[in-house]
Amino acid sequence: MVAFFGGSLAVPLGFGAVVIKGGSPVTPEIYGALVWAIPALVWVGLQLSISLIALTGAALAMPRVTCIGATLVASLMAFFAAAAILAGAGGTILVFGAGGWVGPVSLACAVVAWHGRDGRQRQ
Description:
Number of strands: 0
Strand content: under 5%
Order of helices and strands: HHHHHHH
Helix content: over 70%
Mean pLDDT: 87
Radius of gyration: 15 Å
Structural class: mainly alpha
Low-confidence stretches: none
Number of helices: 7
Largest sheet: none
């Protein structure tokens, strides 16, 4: 989980670098009009924050924090995938990247963090 959420920080960090240089990786063709209407730095900050929550929880063996962060990441990825579907054919990379990989793996991490390896709910 630490490797997964640590690696997932590359996206908001990379996007943030593009935004700081004056560009925007968020385009209406890929993300859809709904996401485009919100400034790119907002998305960068949101994704960076929730990824850090999940990473911190996993790194410090805090199952509830990991579960919350991972659930938030999964929710954001589901939102991005849905927005990309609404964007049409140009949004397919997000449909499969966010909706088919990052979202489901984040959700699996949330379940594992909450229930642990033996399947029992943690207190």
